[in-house]
Amino acid sequence: MPPVMFLAVVGLAGFAGYRLLSALARNAQSGTRKADQAMRRAAAHVRDLGNLEWDEAAGVYRPRAQSKD
């Protein structure tokens, strides 16, 4: 009888471990999905600046000034 009880305990422990790892994987996947959705929302607000020119004084690229004709 003790070997049967030992196998039952090992089986239950294995099943509990499987359930735990499955829940952890689902949790990690949902966190990744949320971060991906947030990144996509942030990237959706990118605007087109048109042609850029180098500003020596500031050391950055700025939108080219519109010439008034």
Strand and helix layout:
Elements: H1 2-43, E1 52-55, E2 60-63
Antiparallel strand pairs: 1-2
Question: Can you walk me through this structure?
Answer:
This protein has one helix at residues 2-43; strands at residues 52-55, 60-63. The chain has 69 residues and is mainly alpha-helical. The protein has one domain (2-63). It has a two-stranded antiparallel sheet with strand order 1-2. The mean pLDDT is 87.
Q: State the helical fraction.
A: 55-70%
Count of alpha/pi helices: 1
Structural class category: mainly alpha
Give the number of domains: 1
Instruction: Kindly report the spatial arrangement of strands forming the biggest sheet.
Output: 1-2
DSSP, total strands: 2
The gross shape turns out to be rod-shaped
**CA(first)-CA(last) distance:** 98 Å
Q: Kindly provide the radius of gyration, computed on alpha-carbon positions and rounded to a whole number of angstroms.
A: 29 Å
Mean pLDDT: 87
Task: Give a short account of the largest sheet.
Answer: 2 strands, antiparallel
Helix-strand pattern = HEE
Which spans have pLDDT < 50 for at least 5 consecutive residues?
none
> What proportion strand?
5-15%
Structure summarized in a few sentences:
With about 70 residues, the protein is mainly α.
